[in-house]
Design brief:
This protein is of the alpha/beta class and 277 residues long. The protein contains 11 helices and 10 strands. Strand 9 and strand 10 form a beta hairpin. The protein is globular and about 50 Å long. The relative contact order is 0.16.
Length: 277
């Protein structure tokens, strides 16, 4: 399906998940701050809570099951836990919708979704999120990239409950100095830290792939921001970048800039003037 505004109508947006990101985006859509887009439906694990969260919205929309969003929306935004990623993604792609995932790391575990999108003429749009200089990485990938290395550094509390931490019995409360808790590929990191390394996943998809992108994860009790640093060596340019994201009050695993990045990505879908690739 080609999601273009036709005859002056607005594209309908369905949001799966009303956490720190989803609720922020829903509020912006309801306020009419994204021309050409309108909130059509939302979905959340706790239906009653979701209804309370949107009770003050100007335009009341239905709270539906994740799989029903594609029936009501042209654009489906995924802001749900990674465990239900396919519950949002598959119906959206099979219906030919534009699918915007926040759990970017989940794309690395579900390689079939790209083929599914192609089969049904759907689109997958990955927001920049907390990744600075993504355009430069995409440009370099048009040539030859030799290596990509990323270092993620967060407060230990931000890693509590991550599958890799649980499986390896790592005590985040016991960490008193900067400690490297993981080193491997972006694909391995996304599997072990699904809520923490969406930035690395996006970087790998923009560059040389999840198996060739090297990732280090550090638990650092001395930081109060989510710090991402990456270095790229390519035939066109060598560059590096660092971004220090302020964690969201609702979820310290997520930077405040992530929701803003989603808003910018949605705005770009209908914008007549767009800066950046």
């Amino acid at each position: 399906m080609n999601t273009e505004v036709q005859n002056g109508g607005a594209l309908r947006v369905g949001i799966g998940g009303l956490g720190a990101i989803g609720l922020k985006v829903a509020g912006v859509l309801d306020a009419g701050e994204l021309p050409g887009l309108e909130l059509a439906a939302v979905s959340a694990r706790d239906t009653d809570k979701a209804k309370r969260n949107i009770a003050d919205f100007k335009n009341q929309v239905p709270v539906v099951a994740l799989g029903e969003l594609a029936d009501l929306a042209d654009i489906v935004l995924e802001c749900a836990p990674s465990a239900v990623f396919r519950d949002v993604a598959v119906p959206a792609l099979e219906a030919g919708r534009t699918f915007v995932p926040i759990s970017v790391g989940s794309l690395l575990e579900h390689d079939d979704l790209k083929a599914l999108a192609d089969q049904h003429h759907a689109r997958i749009i990955v927001p920049t999120g907390a990744l600075i200089a993504l355009d430069a990485v995409r440009a370099a990938a048009e040539g030859t990239i030799h290596s990509v290395t990323m270092v993620t550094r967060k407060n230990p509390a931000g890693f509590v409950g991550a599958p890799y931490v649980v499986e390896n019995d790592l005590d985040m409360d016991a960490i008193t100095e900067p400690t490297k808790i993981f080193e491997g590929s972006a694909r391995e990191g996304a599997k072990g830290f699904p809520a923490n390394v969406n930035v690395a996943a996006a970087l790998s998809l923009a560059g040389i792939g999840p198996d060739r992108t090297t990732l280090q994860i550090w638990a650092d009790p001395g930081v109060d921001r989510n710090i991402q640093h990456f270095e790229v060596e390519a035939d066109s340019a060598d560059f590096e970048a660092t971004i220090k994201n302020v964690p969201s009050e609702e979820n310290m695993r997520t930077g405040k800039i992530t929701a803003l990045s989603v808003i910018a990505a949605l705005r770009g879908i209908t914008a007549q003037f767009k800066v950046g690739t």
